[in-house]
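Hi D.,

Good news: the full-assembly prediction came through. Inputs first.
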Amino acid sequence: MVTASDLWLWLEEVSDPEIPVLTVVDLGVIRSVETDGKNAHIVITPTYSGCPAMKMIEDQIIEKLKEKGVDTCTVDLTLAPAWTTDWISEEGKNKLREYGIAPPENEPDKTVLFAKPTVVPCPQCRSLNTRMISLFGSTACKAHYQCNDCLEPYDYFKCLR
Amino acid sequence: MNQAHVDFVLRIADDSLILGHRLSEWCGHGPVLEEDIAMTNIALDLIGQATSLLSHAATLQGEGKTGDDLAFLRFDREYRNLLLVEQPNGDFGMTMMRQFLFDAYRTILFERLQSSSDEMIAAIAEKSLKETKYHLKHSSEWVIRLGDGTEESHARIQESLNTLWRYANELFYTDAVDDEMRNTGILPDLSDLRQQWENTVNHVFQEATLTIPTNNWKQEGGRKGMHSEHLGYILAEMQYMQRAYPNMEW
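Then the structure:
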């Protein structure tokens, strides 16, 4: 007999294909899980509209739950409410930092043009003396920064809300 | 099927699709690695938006087509995108100017569409707005940096503005489709769209020391399927595989 809490637990074994240190649960993309005891229905939401990882996440969820003995697993995609980086768990943010990716900071509203770039502490040496290299990084969800003190270049998981 | 509803969704979808394709042409050709990555990231957001919007349009049509069918199997006269987004990339400044004129408009449009009575449009708008704000930040900063940069960069981006300005008026194009959408609550009030857009544009151009051209020639037609010569070439490249090998997937 499969329960919803089993499903949540098992989903924690599915990692984000592009940021393997985060599970899909840490990332906050799992919107709901349902089970009748045998089958499972999972609803996920994309981080960005064009995120190429979504299809892979869906396949990995189905594969993992099959492996755990779930009969049939369906995964649906929902757009609303729109994902925000506030849904990344505290544990997830710590994991990101440990991994060398700066977690999202509280950023001002981006419709305010001419705002100064956000101060993003270096995930390596914690220095606040850092600079933005580019608003866009290795994936849609990241920007590119560099530390002026330890000189380490790093990804910043940009704030989306 | 409500044809106006389908046309309305196609207009927003095709803007995303065609501009996304244009930006993807920069892949491997950006002036610096960071901007190559930035432009392809923005392309990815736009093509993601187009995917959601085109599958919504296909559902509304109810003819058993998919979003991919609409993306890859329509003829040029059936595309409803703005002339602005199909214009060639030109130099990096031209691409940033095209992007800025569009982003400034798109941000306002998506803000308003969040309260559309069409729940799918509202959901896509809420999602896309978060991305579009980033795009606007990026493009406006480049317009300022290039405009208020060297003599060479200033001259070139001013020339881009002179070239693209004739297509800006189409951002505010409305016809019977918009009237019907407003009446059904699918399109919220946009009467101050131009004013809001001009506020952003004037503010940025002032910082960028750029001058809006006095020649006010306006070119439009994309919303009705009357395109510039450039769209045909885009479609030839975009549709080649699907036309040559029908129903292929990878």
